[in-house]
Design brief:
This protein is an alpha+beta fold. The chain has four helices and four strands.
């Protein structure tokens, strides 16, 4: 087992955008919109968590190369039954940044879940409506 040898590859511009969603109850979505989540501003905290996660991707995915990222941008949108998250990552390097974009989206979604879990639990402590879905890479760019 080894990391892929990228030493002979040229540095090129890399960009990737990933997306995902978390389904929440309407009451929880209302609390998020009104910034009344007890733990704090769920979307702002989640965005920062996603940016930090993108920067640390190689620490949690064993064979990922550590990358010097140029930027990580995270957007969230509260919809009728869910929060949609999009993360775009850019770098000048030898390997793509799609894993960093996926990691950012995943951690944003997990952070939203953590920030709102007290509202999502039912009487038995389960999460009947909370679901993370549709985590995917929307696009990947490589420019020489």
């Amino acid at each position: 087992m080894s990391m892929v040898d990228i030493s002979e590859k040229p540095d090129v511009f890399r960009e990737a955008t990933a997306r995902g969603e978390i389904q929440l109850s309407r009451e929880t979505l209302r609390l998020i919109k009104e910034n009344r989540v007890e733990k704090g501003d769920a979307l702002s905290v989640a965005k920062v968590a996603g940016i930090l996660a993108a920067k640390k991707t190689s620490d949690v995915i064993p064979l990922c190369h550590p990358l010097a990222l140029s930027t990580v941008a995270v957007k969230t949108e509260v919809l009728d039954s869910r929060v949609a998250v999009e993360a775009t990552v850019k770098a000048l390097g030898k390997t793509g940044v799609e894993m960093e974009a996926l990691t950012a989206v995943s951690v944003v979604l997990l952070t939203i879940w953590d920030m709102t879990k007290q509202y999502e639990k039912d009487a038995e402590g389960q999460y009947p409506t909370t679901v993370i879905t549709n985590v995917t890479v929307l696009r990947k760019v490589k420019k020489y």
